[in-house]
């Protein structure tokens, strides 16, 4: 018999950056610094990502656009691929993402795109521990999610292969 099942998850919404713990504020600040170095001349939408690893290292990335649009890469994947390349066996504890646009004021936190969710999911699955995600717009409100799996329901992993 068919059953109907709801899949849901909790998020934490902070009214402001100041409500975060110091280590999370520091991580978000690193994502803000990274977004300022984004190469986004086509969209004017700058994204910074900062990963905190288990050994305390912080790895950052930002979006890198290209005149051939699909050849560019999102900030989250730049950061996670760099972490995978440089610290292959180090678990990722948290990911902070912040965005800013030169075209309009973005006050809502932006969640990773679908492609980035899938890429991040691979690392979470590999390390067998959740990656916490903090997201912020240009300033202000911060949204926290407990894992990549939460924001990628019914995710695809290598058990299918
Ligand atoms: N972008 C990211 O870096 N991360 C996301 O999760 C969403 C989109 C970038 C890609 C592109 O350079 C610009 O934002 C506009 O889509």
From TrEMBL:
Any Pfam family: dCMP_cyt_deam_1
InterPro entries per the UniProt record, alphabetical: APOBEC/CMP_deaminase_Zn-bd, CMP_dCMP_dom, Cyt/Deoxycyt_deaminase, Cyt_deam_tetra, Cytidine_deaminase-like
Cofactor(s) listed in the protein's UniProt record: Zn(2+)
Annotated residues for binding of Zn(2+): 74, 113, 116
Positions of the CMP/dCMP-type deaminase domain: 22-159
Cellular component terms (Gene Ontology): cytosol
EC number assigned by the record: 3.5.4.5
CDD domains in the record: cytidine_deaminase
BP term (GO), one: nucleobase-containing small molecule metabolic process
Catalytic residues, chain numbering: 76
Keywords recorded for this protein, A-Z: Hydrolase, Metal-binding, Zinc
Gene3D superfamilies (alphabetical): Cytidine Deaminase, domain 2
GO MF entries: cytidine deaminase activity; identical protein binding; zinc ion binding
Amino acids binding substrate: 63-69
Enzyme kind, highest EC tier: hydrolase
Statement: the UniProt record of this protein carries the keyword Zinc: yes
Catalyzed reactions per annotation: 2'-deoxycytidine + H2O + H(+) = 2'-deoxyuridine + NH4(+); cytidine + H2O + H(+) = uridine + NH4(+)
Similarity remark: Belongs to the cytidine and deoxycytidylate deaminase family.
PANTHER family according to UniProt: CYTIDINE DEAMINASE
Record function comment: This enzyme scavenges exogenous and endogenous cytidine and 2'-deoxycytidine for UMP synthesis.
Protein name in the entry: Cytidine deaminase
């Amino acid at each position: 018999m068919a059953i109907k099942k709801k899949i849901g998850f909790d998020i934490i919404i902070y009214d402001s950056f100041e409500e975060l713990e110091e280590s999370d504020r520091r991580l978000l600040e690193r994502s803000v610094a990274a977004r300022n170095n984004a190469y986004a001349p086509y969209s004017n939408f700058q994204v910074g990502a900062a990963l905190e690893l288990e050994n305390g290292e912080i790895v950052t990335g930002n979006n890198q656009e290209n005149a051939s649009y699909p050849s560019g890469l999102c900030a989250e994947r730049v950061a996670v691929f760099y972490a995978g390349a440089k610290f292959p066996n180090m678990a990722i504890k948290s990911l902070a993402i912040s965005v800013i646009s030169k075209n309009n004021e973005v006050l809502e936190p932006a969640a990773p795109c679908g492609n980035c969710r899938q890429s991040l999911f691979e690392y979470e699955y590999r390390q067998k521990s959740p990656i916490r995600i903090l997201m912020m717009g240009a300033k202000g409100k911060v949204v926290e999610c407990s894992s990549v799996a939460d924001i990628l329901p019914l995710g695809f992993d290598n058990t299918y292969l």
